[in-house]
Amino acid sequence: MHVTVQYFARLRELAGCQTWICELTEGSTVADVWQACISRHPRVEVLGASLSCAVNADFSRMGAIVRDGDEVAFLPPVSGGAWTES
Amino acid sequence: MTFPSFAVTTEPLALEQVVVHVETLGRQKGEGCGAVCTFLGVVRATHHHRTVRHLEYEAHAALALRAFEIIATEVAGQWPLATLAVHHRVGRIAIGEASVIVAAGSAHRDESFRVCRYGIERVKQIAPVWKHEFFDDGEDWVEGPIADPDDAELRRQALERACM
Which residues of chain B does A51 touch, with a Cβ-Cβ cutoff of 8 Å? Predict the structure, then answer.
């Protein structure tokens, strides 16, 4: 099966592309898609610890199962800057 | 076309239309609308003492709209009679122009201030929008929180800010 991977912002720049089609086996998770991303675009790995993800334009989790035709987006930290308490 | 409560657009933002929209929706709830509080995020000319030439905002537009809906649902849970609108601009934005509008309507001013503050804090936390700053001497992506609507601690912080 195939999913469309979408990169944004710094991830897009690191990968050198906005989208690509990823081939996976049935039962794969978002985390498996990310591993495929690292194989395909090794430079994206640097953001691996600070990602969130979305499937078909809704927030998702790395453990979620993906299905044929899904759009899987990886999101670097957002620009909310401003403040945190840490 | 109906004016939207939530939008991601490359066009300049329309504050007055957003205010009219929020008032019109708010009028139909509870005691009606007696207060509209608005927040505008505006492109600043400096960042960490560097001179900003312009900004480029990038978004996952469909997911950003989903994030705004999630925030509105949170608002409805906390302030059931309030009305929220969020319009975010993307693309290249010049110094002084608005990048985001949050507008909150309610019967009385206290609630509208709180909802507006909560709204912008949550937008900053979870909306998949990225700011690319272009300086005289380089460029940078601004990166803050990991966008996770289910992060209870982030949400608590936004609520605390709103209710100070």
Answer: 146
Q: Which of A73, A77, A79 sits opposite B63 (nearest CB)?
A: A73
Tell me how close the Cα of B72 comes to any Cα of chain A, in angstroms. 15
Domains of chain A, first to last: 2-75 (3.10.20.30)
Cα of A50 to nearest chain B Cα, Å: 6
**pLDDT tens, residue by residue, B35-52:** 999 999 999 998 888 899
pLDDT per position as a tens digit, B69-124 = 999 999 999 999 999 999 999 999 999 999 999 999 999 999 999 999 999 999 99
Report the phi/psi class of residue B24: left, alpha or beta, with left for phi > 0 and alpha for psi in -120 to 50.
alpha
Name the residue facing B130 among A8, A52, A58 (closest C-beta): A8
- Calculate the alpha carbon distances from B104 to A75, B56, B71 in Å: 28, 26, 12
Instruction: List for chain A the helix, strand, coil content (%; round to 5).
Output: 30, 30, 40
* pTM, 2 dp: 0.94
Task: Specify the CATH number for B6-162; select among 3.10.450.50, 3.40.190.10, 3.90.1170.40, 3.40.50.720.
Answer: 3.90.1170.40
What is the predicted ipTM?
Answer: 0.93
Q: Chain B residues with CB inside 8 Å of A75's CB?
A: 60, 63, 128, 147
Of B41, B88, B37, the C-alpha closest to B60 is: B88
Q: Quick check: B147 and A82 CB within 8 A?
A: no
